[in-house]
Write a structure and sequence with these properties.
five-stranded mixed beta sheet; alpha+beta; 3 domains; four-stranded antiparallel beta sheet; 35% helix; elongated
Length: 437
Amino acid sequence: MTEEQKKAVAVFRFGVIADFVNGVHLDYGERERFLAEKSARKWVIPYSGRSWIGRSTMQRWVTLYEASGGRLESLYPSDRSDAGKSRSLDEETVLSLRRVREELPKATARVLVEEMKSRHLIHDGLPLSCVYRVLHSHGLMTRDASPPEDRRKFEAEMPNDIWQSDVLHGPTVEVDGRKRKSYLIAFIDDHSRLIPYGAFYLSESIGSFLTALEQAFLTRGLPRKLYVDNGAAFRSKHLEHILASLGIALVHSRPYKPQGRGKIERFFRTVREEVTNRFVGGTLEDINGVFSCWLRTKYHTRNHGTTGETPFARFTSNMACMRTAPENLKDHFRKMEKRRIANDRTLTLNGRLYEGPIALIGKRVDVLYHVHEPERIEIVFQDRTYGFHQPVNPHVNCRVRRTKNNQAELNPVEQNAVIGIDARYQGGRLFSKSVQP
């Protein structure tokens, strides 16, 4: 190497070890963190085909620099007469190996040797250690594993800043004489490790998840972010709409990267060890009773290994900025569908026929409803509500006559008979005429 090349290498090496020799004292943990980060990353090393620096190499550079009293020359590369050459392979063999490697970039060293023998480029086998050395020295060695990622431990600053959620496959339970698998749907507060809500269900579908989510909001208030994986339930448009309407950000972890949800995964491991593996009951009510008791009397009241506090004490120590669930929380969980009101004032939703306002005939409206309460829907048009409506009863409609103002009026003679048919439609209120445009 020329003097300028050696100087460039020395400057590069100093840049690598600057964090260790700049006069700032590093405790053992900080020093180890820097070594791990630097040995894991990929470098552009001057005049070298390598891109990785081992921790022992960095420590040797630090020792040389400090022993010289801080002289840059101590980091100059040493001269070797055979630098860049294999001391056990002749130059022609090295060139042949490089050509084969370029043709087969993903082949193993053993396959490369067999390929060279089949082409009569070598007569006998080559030591694999020599093959690896040549490939490394010319930058032709691919790493078997992807380089380590920059994963950093994090913790939310305040309670209800971030909730993590996931589903744990639970024990088999008996339902109506049949064996069914149970699923634990749980939420964990990132700051305190408190469980806002958790329960076992017979399904991990979006319906079960939303039921658990609503109970969590009612119990512990609203988080600012909900961190989940990429399961089908967590990709639901309905879930996105619910959270957005409540001012909650939905964050998905990257596919096949569960490390970011480590807190909920660690909680599930504790549940397996202390609850599900010891469960001796038989029904869904049994497992939920055991889990609820364990959560209340043990998990929430013992010091957490990381925070040093009980989850309940840490969660309740700073509640000034918490958002409580709104009074109309249930309305936020309604589904919304687009429907057009037909000329006979009807619209169809999930196989049911409903009657809408006269003023909206021919209009495309928003229909809000609860999945578990299909008999009651709300019709909204241009951000204005037109009240709640119920399914049409055609037998009652056949007894309705219209006034001059096109208002519905039940025939007084047949009113009692109608009430006898279905007491739900007293006073003609079936037709939702209380809301007029």
